[in-house]
Amino acid sequence: MSKNINSDWFTRLQPEFEKPYFKSLWHFVEDEYASHVCYPPENEIFNAFNSCAFKDVKVVILGQDPYHGPGQANGLCFSVADGIAHPPSLKNIFKEIESDLGKSYPKSGNLERWANQGVLLLNATLTVREHAAGSHQKKGWETFTDHIISLINTKKEGVVFLLWGGFAKKKSKLIDTERHFILTSGHPSPLSANRGYWFGNKHFSKTNSLLQRNKQSEILW
């Protein structure tokens, strides 16, 4: 398995790929894909980076794990491939966009259209074994994706970070709020959303207002 990642990111990440923790992680990932069904497909592990070049990043949405059901994960957090039924969290994201922006509920749950506009859809863990949530956590992916957040924090300005739920909120310590914007809320999962911690956060209109303020183009959510 090779690390298929575009040159804009690769030049910045190559030193990380050479570190002992990442080499150990990559051996683990190769073994897992060789011996188990894992997601996303091998050629989509780095899809978040290939769909959103470093130079284009203006919004970061942080997830935790890829979906672990057949055909769901496509390498972008909260996103599923075209034609796949929308998981509950994604349904609640789309419902909030409906309420916040008055947009109709979309047919496709593929969020590549967001990534292509500068939204980095980053899971903290980039791979998972089928039907085994969290199975690839604490193997090194979190160190790698924390490095991504830190890289964006130090090398860019005016990025809007959307941190949904307790896990994502912990990443705020990696972000300089003098340089960037952070919006937090509960997670869009039914457990959190049905308790009133998600709906009404208006993160999508707020993000666009912050981008406008920073003289950047809005996201067509």
What does this structure look like?
By secondary structure, the protein is α/β, with parallel strands linked by helices. It is 38% helix and 11% strand. The chain is built from nine helices and six strands; from the N terminus they run H-H-E-H-E-H-H-E-E-H-E-H-E-H-H. It has helices at 7-17, 20-35, 47-51, 88-101, 112-115, 141-155, 165-169, 190-193, 203-213, and strands spanning 38-39, 59-63, 119-123, 128-129, 160-164, 181-185. The strands form two sheets. Strands 3-2-5-6 form a four-stranded parallel β-sheet. A two-stranded antiparallel sheet has the order 1-4. Strand 5, helix 7 and strand 6 form a beta-alpha-beta unit. It starts with 6 loop residues before the first helix and ends in an 8-residue tail after the last helix. The model has no long low-confidence stretch (mean pLDDT 96).
